[in-house]
Amino acid sequence: MPIIQMSRYKALSWMRLASYVCLAASLLSGCSLLPDEEETLQPPVQVKKQTNHETALVKKGSIEKYLSTTASALSSSNTSVSFPESGGQIKKLFVQTGELITAGSPIAELDTGDLQTRIKLQKLTVEQKQIIYSGAVKTGSSPKDSRLAQIDLDREQLILASLEKEYNKSLLLAPVSGKITYLSVPNPGEGVTAFQTIATIANPDAIELIYESTDVKNINGVKKDTDVTIKYKDKTYQGKVAQTPATAPKSDDPILQKRNAKALIIAFNSPKPTIEIGDYVDIKLFIEKKDNILIVPRSSLRTFLGRSTVQVIDGERVKELDVETGLMTSAEVEITKGLDEGQKVILG
Q1: 91 and 186: one domain?
Q2: What are phi and psi of 339, to 5 degrees?
Q3: Which one of 115, 136, 189, 334 counts the least CB within 10 Å of its CB?
Q4: Element holding 320 (H helix, E strand)
């Protein structure tokens, strides 16, 4: 083989070898272009969370329940007033609620049309007949003429008396003195019927206190003659429970029945304060006491839709238990079923 061809062949061989080396080097170096593999993260170590509950022990003890609230002053002597014979349209009101009135004073008047005008005209007629009759007597008229004049006078007087009687029926007068505490017809022009209560007159000297409970269960334990502490205008007085729902008298008045079913009536002991109807006082009275019972704080009790529950600590767990309750105050609750003495309840 010629020397030139041999040299060319060797040159090509070296070039192929160099290209292979470069290719291998590029492949090896290409690995460095890939992104570094992320380091695998270890899972977090779970630490058990410690929950600190505020607790209290179920214990045996005593509960005293008191009622501290407000009561209003009202009269124990109230007189209802109505038109006794007929109704009609109210023409005029002579009084307002809260006003003092004396017996015989007018309260309301019914509309009688032109009756008052007719009464005035009839009074003139009576006066006229009186003059005629007196003249007949003075002038010595015959007995017949004098008698006829007297008959005319008597007739007109009877007509006048009948008209005045009719007008008096349209007037509603106060049968007793006192304070107007109720008016069913606040404005003239309204219609009323016979025996419909138009006004109530209260005796301001016969004052007692009333407390109406929103829930009769709150006063079920109150006994008649229970002592009551009363505060009025920064002074303290004493009284007694005069009436409870259990001792309330029977009544045909549905409004009074409803009130008595949830009310306490309290009477002042002597000395009594000067107090107005409608004034408010603060009262405090003993309701009930129980000894040797299971007690938990009121804040531990949970109620929902009539269900009462408490949460108790049981080892490392919290359990919810159904309970039955008894006497209850703003701070404590009697547990009659569901808990044992010494258990720990969670305060909510």
Answers
A1: yes
A2: -135, 160
A3: 189
A4: strand 317-322
